[in-house]
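Trying the structure run again after the queue cleared.
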Amino acid sequence: MQRPMHRLGVVGAGAWGTALACVARRAGREVVLWAREAEVVAAVNEDHANPLFLPGIDLDPGIRATADLAEVAEADALLLAVPAQHLGAVATALAPHLPPDRPLVICAKGIERDSGRLMGEVIAEALPGRSFAVLSGPTFAAEVARELPTAVTLAAADAELGRRLVEAIGTPRFRPYLSDDPIGVQIGGAVKNVIAIACGIVMGRQLGDNARAALITRGLAEMVRLGLAKGGRETTLMGLSGLGDLTLTCNGPQSRNLTVGIALGQGRTLAQALEGRRSVAEGVATAASVTALARRLGIEMPISAAVDAILHRGADVDETIAGLLARPFRSEGVTG
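Done. Tokens:
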């Protein structure tokens, strides 16, 4: 008999994890939120707020925080919202406490830097045999927390699991759309952050809206190219978790990746661009892993490779842009 999803655990109390806790609570679930930082646990439980990561948002008193992974693992399903580069370590720490039938929802967007693994592949190794879904889409955490209308993709190979999760977290203002393509959804969530950094660089260099629109469009072609190579579907990447998230992240001033790119385009170093930030700009690490994965799969992703070169290889911004503009003329399309 399937376990009812009355109690949801959220692993990770950054901006996104806290916003997801708000979603789950509004859907009528009991919510336990795991945080690494003692001050976050205290603030959530005592002040019903998370000023460290999600300032200005009042939290439902029914959201309870804990620093104990064993406690959050007792929930009926877990939403994994830690940064992508830390998901493997947290999943490994969860393993001794997690029953084999406990469903997982991957809410992190990225590709593991050292291994090139998608988040689902990370979970499959750290927590073998567990059913999981992937939640992704155009979501600024503060807007989700304020209950502004949002639509996302929830992908699961197990259709029944996907349906149960939609019922558990869906509300009129947080609308999950079901998919059976977890790979495509993961690729969209990872690559869009890299393209957003590229768009920020263009904005910082004041190269105009035409150039940014071209980057978004050709970035989508790179996203589809990688998605197909990994076994995802093009239609998935034309949906909320691909084109939708790409559009938001490349245009919204709340985007952490976009603002990192703007700083780089204005001439700051990466260290300066990241200085003072509490929340993670996932595209910084993902640029390297996306580029390496594309190389292994034998596909071209010139925009992603250019971002990686600027971030991690000391490439000059103007010379890198000139190199992209000097590429041969080609037919438009995913393979162009």
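The mean pLDDT is 95. Worth checking whether this holds up in the mutant runs.
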